[in-house]
Design brief:
This protein has 412 residues and is mainly beta. It contains four helices and 37 strands. The chain has one domain: Pectate Lyase C-like (3 Solenoid). The protein starts with 26 loop residues before the first helix and ends in a 28-residue tail after the last strand.
Length: 412
């Protein structure tokens, strides 16, 4: 990654409250959701599914290292299915415990899904510490569950959420043949601290299927989303409204083939840079968006603050308009900084952001202490950063807060 730079804006008013989910990042937290018996595979059960079938609500299915060619179903109870990473802390167990969806009899040589999570799966259902590979879907998920510390490789969609969600954290998604994370229907949840790289289509694809129930919120934060074959994050609009809200916060979105964040209309998933004016509210806060073909394209109700958009081949901000408002933003070395977007007056910081290879601001970066703590504007909803998320005289611009060591996962 090259050195970068960015721009900036200010405001304050209606404070946006982030929906809270437990992150599930530590083994202790994961273990706390296990309350019953441990069923060991293959010591006590010859297959993982046999152990799942025998498990009661709250039980643990503990899987020894090996390759397991099964299509699993989790439904009707809360069961934790985990590799020995959960009990030993040995991260090597993730690579050695493989759930493989290869099916020579299938048309494309893959199972429909390696793991199916039905809508009645319990709230403490967990999938922890596996390599999940070679499925049409790695996981097809219709419930709110925990998917933590796995590696997804060579699936079509790595995780296909069909109205489900929950917590998806500390996973690695790479070399999948379609999207890493596919959100369909009224999904909600927390997607954080993931590495999403080198997938053939979008890093995260969000279809805004019609939905009229209680507000559903998706928070996408602290992720490294890079080198994907289409958009880093893509929104696909549908004709009828969807009562959903999105927070995209402190992500590094870098070197994707098309847009960093792109908005498409009329159910179209093939990026054309049309910059659709999508109605759903999207908060784009403290992201580093660099080395993409476009930065942000479209969005009719975006609230953007403290982002760095740099080294964009074409346009950094394209038609981020209608009810959108763009505050403090660092813009640097883009083919074009702004095309018909609602960038507030004097909000842009035009300077080399001086970023290290991993996206962190280096000493002397103009991104340090150059952000704004809040934003508001007329009809646009406001956003205020929690004081706990920044240090110094003002927030930093971009995904990383230097004084607090806050930001996405590091590079390898």
């Amino acid at each position: 990654m090259k050195h970068f730079t960015l721009t900036f804006v200010l405001a304050a008013s209606l404070c946006f409250a982030v929906q809270t989910f437990a992150t599930g990042q530590s083994r202790t937290e994961i273990q706390s959701r296990v309350s019953g018996t441990t069923h060991r595979v293959p010591e006590e059960f010859p297959t993982i599914q046999a152990a799942i079938n025998a498990a009661a609500d709250g039980d643990l299915v503990l899987v020894a290292p090996g390759t397991y060619n099964e299509s699993l179903t989790l439904d009707g109870k809360s069961v934790t299915v985990a590799s020995t990473f959960l009990t030993t802390g040995d991260e090597g167990a993730i690579a050695k415990t493989i759930l493989d969806g290869t099916d020579a009899a299938a048309e494309e040589g893959k199972m429909d899904q390696v793991i199916f999570v039905g809508p009645a799966a319990g709230a403490n259902t967990q999938i922890v510490g596996f390599t999940i590979q070679n499925g049409d879907d790695g996981i097809s998920c219709e419930a709110d569950i925990y998917i933590v510390r796995n590696r997804f490789i060579a699936n079509d969609d790595a995780i296909d959420y069909e109205g489900g969600g929950g917590v998806c954290a500390y996973n690695v998604f790479e070399h999948n043949e379609d999207d890493a994370i596919d959100l369909d229907g009224p999904c909600q949840g927390l997607f954080e601290h993931n590495v999403i790289r080198d997938n053939e289509d979008d890093g995260i694809e969000i279809r805004l299927h019609p939905y009229t129930g209680p507000l559903r919120r998706v928070t996408i934060r602290y992720n490294r989303i890079e080198r994907n074959g289409e958009d880093g994050i893509q929104f696909i609009d549908y004709p009828d409204p969807s009562n959903r809200e999105f927070v995209i916060e402190r992500n590094l979105i870098a070197d994707n083939e098309m847009a960093g964040i792109g908005f498409m209309s009329n159910m179209n998933s093939h990026e054309s840079y049309e910059a659709a004016s999508v109605d759903e509210r999207v908060f784009v806060i403290n992201n580093t968006i660099v080395l993409n073909e476009y930065g942000i394209t479209g969005g009719g109700s975006i609230v953007a603050l403290n982002n760095i958009i740099a080294h964009t081949e074409m346009t950094a901000l394209r038609k981020v308009a209608y009810h959108s408002v763009i505050g403090r933003t660092l813009l640097w070395n883009n083919g074009r900084d702004n095309d018909s977007s609602n960038l507030l007056a004097d909000a842009a910081v035009v300077a080399d952001p001086i970023l290290a290879k991993d996206g962190n601001p280096e000493s002397g970066s103009p991104a340090i202490d150059a952000g704004a703590p809040s934003i508001t504007r007329d009809h646009a909803a406001g956003y205020a950063l929690s004081p706990a998320t920044w240090s110094g005289k003002a927030p930093d611009l971009g995904a990383f807060e230097v004084g607090l060591k806050v930001g996405p996962p590091g590079t390898e």
